[in-house]
Design brief:
The complex is a heterodimer of chains A (about 90) and B (about 140). In chain A, about 15% of the residues lie in helices and about 30% in strands. Chain A is an alpha+beta fold and about 90 residues long. The mean pLDDT of chain A is about 95. Chain B is an alpha/beta fold. Chain B has a single domain, classed as 3-Layer(aba) Sandwich (Cytidine Deaminase, domain 2). Chain B has three helices and nine strands. The chains are: A alpha+beta (about 90), B alpha/beta (about 140). At the A-B interface, strand 7 and strand 8 of A face strand 4, helix 2, strand 5 and helix 3 of B. Chain A: It comes from Planomonospora venezuelensis.
Chain lengths: ~90, ~140
């Protein structure tokens, strides 16, 4: 079972420059674990203290996983997971 | 150096003024590798705050996909500071996530009165480098 994971520019150092990589898993958590095995270091950029990092957006197909089940969100063959760093900042 | 048309500069300033005192934010897309900002995309500040901005996550996905489909990239990422100078804050630096983008900041703080300060930076790995802005006729 393969799921396409789209990697943003800033994280492509972990994927040898690849814009998209395949990974496996039944949930987002498992998928990220599999990504980590293939591309060490990536998990740390997505997860902090057992939860998705606040300033990283992860989408399953067309939905932000925060509105689904977070790391517990089920994923399946043919799905696309997109990672986009949040664009954020401000005076304070 | 950032080279940008007068028309796009005016659009950024207009957006910043319209949303003042909240921070305004958006991107200007351009063809991949061209380093030329072309397509103005004002974004919703999901925080609607005078001191913080964050692109709405669903709007960001839509806009980033559009850029992908059109072989574009975010050449400029802009936002406004509404009470302080147009210099990247600690927050701006820690969340800067597009190493190829020009980060444009505008200040609409009151002591500037009718004028607006607009400056551009590269922010890579926590290091801020200010760059010259060349404004060219559209």
């Amino acid at each position: 079972m393969a799921i396409e994971v789209r990697i943003p520019t800033i994280l492509r150092t972990y994927t040898d420059g690849a814009k998209a990589v395949d990974a496996k898993g039944a949930t987002l958590q498992e998928l990220i674990g599999d990504l980590e095995a293939r591309h060490p270091g990536l998990q740390d950029r997505l997860i902090e203290q057992g939860a998705l990092r606040r300033f990283v957006n992860v989408y399953l197909n067309d939905e932000d996983v925060r509105f689904l089940g977070g790391l517990e969100t089920p994923v399946a063959d043919g799905d696309t997971v997109t990672v986009l760093p949040a664009v954020a900042g401000g005076a304070r | 150096m950032l080279t940008i048309s007068k028309e796009l500069v005016d659009k950024i300033i207009e957006h910043a003024r319209a949303d003042h005192p909240d921070e305004a934010c958006g991107v200007i897309a351009g063809p991949l590798g061209s380093d030329t900002p072309v397509r103005f995309v004002p974004m919703e500040n999901a925080e609607r705050s005078p001191t913080f901005y964050r692109f709405d996550s669903m709007e960001q996905l839509k806009v980033w996909r559009e850029m992908d489909d059109r072989d574009e990239e975010p050449v400029v990422i802009y936002h406004s500071h509404t009470a302080t100078e147009a210099y990247p804050s600690r927050t701006d630096i820690s969340y800067a996530s597009e190493p190829n983008a020009h980060y444009v900041l505008v200040s609409t703080r009151e002591e500037l009165r009718e004028s607006v300060e607009l400056r551009s930076y590269r922010i890579v790995d926590g290091v801020v480098t200010e760059e010259e802005v060349e404004i060219v006729p559209a």
